[in-house]
Specification:
By secondary structure, the chain is mostly helical. The chain contains 13 helices and no strands. Helix 2 packs antiparallel against helix 12 and helix 3 packs parallel to helix 5. The relative contact order is 0.16. One of its GO terms (cellular component) is ATP-binding cassette (ABC) transporter complex.
Length: 275
């Protein structure tokens, strides 16, 4: 036991691990809170679609020698708006729209990479995730935007709750459902872009989906689902990072494996409680 605590103490002495934990905990909380609403609205895969759009934007930014996040954030936010409008307009179902954007943006990103400098270390870190790639400026931006997401979420908690469960009733009671659906899309887009550096474009959607699904296996009320999802997300991140440090495994994959383990534990617990 003392050796484990010694390893943990050593892990947190490294500046890159301190940066990763600071940004990662905030991003994990944001992803879990938004994930509950997205799963309930059957938009679970929007995170996957937006992450692929983000990779395409990052590839273009890299080719043009522009600041990656300065390009990716507005592009992904715009993609979130378009996905929302396509789904609401009925021209494309939600899953079809996400699949179209996901594959299309990823193809554009791969094409841009292939005809320019090729896959460099920076783009590789966005695709697969790398805590070593998080600079001080990345962490500062992540903290600022994550706090903005959390503040907006809690300020408009009641409205987001209403549009999550019954948009028609929300409109009837005077809630601007379209505006708050758009707000949910924007918050999700920002969270996805921030999490790509740590988790990678291929795995960031799992940070949104698994904690929410695991919490729903046991909890029955919206507020308790949110609290449980946030706790699971932060715990999964911390344990995944520890596993990554101890066994030299990829951070993003380690976090996802821990989240899957939590999901199966909560699934079994939910079945026991329902008997």
């Amino acid at each position: 036991m003392t050796e484990i605590f010694a390893y943990l103490g050593e892990m947190l002495t490294y500046p890159f691990m301190q940066r990763a934990f600071l940004a990662g905990i905030l991003i994990s909380v944001c992803a879990s809170l938004l994930g509950v609403s997205l799963v309930l609205k059957r938009y679970s895969m929007i995170g996957d679609g937006l992450s692929h759009v983000g990779f395409g934007a990052l590839a273009i930014a890299s080719a043009l020698h522009l600041a990656p996040l300065a390009v990716a954030v507005p592009v992904v936010v715009l993609a979130a708006f378009v996905l929302l409008r396509l789904s609401e307009g009925g021209r494309l179902k939600g899953d079809a729209a996400v699949a179209m954007f996901s594959t299309g943006a990823l193809a554009v990103g791969v094409m841009v990479v292939s005809v320019t400098t090729g896959m460099n270390a920076d783009l590789n870190s966005y695709l697969f995730g790398s805590i070593l790639a998080m600079s001080r400026s990345d962490v500062v931006l992540s903290v600022v935007l994550a706090f903005a997401v959390l503040v907006l979420y809690f300020v408009f908690y009641n409205q987001l709750f209403a549009v999550t469960f019954d948009p028609v009733f929300a409109r009837a009671t005077g809630v601007r459902a379209g505006f708050f659906n758009s707000l949910l899309a924007v918050l999700t887009a920002v969270t996805v872009v921030l999490g790509m550096r740590m988790m990678g474009a291929l795995l960031i959607s799992s940070l949104i989906i698994f904690p929410a699904l695991a919490a729903m296996r046991v909890c029955r009320h919206y507020r308790t689902v949110i609290l449980a999802a946030a706790l699971l997300s932060v715990s999964g991140f911390a344990l995944g990072m520890t596993v990554s440090f101890l066994f030299a495994t990829p951070a993003g994959a380690s976090i996802v494996v821990v989240d899957i383990f939590f999901y199966f534990i909560f699934s079994a617990l939910g079945k026991l409680l329902s008997r």
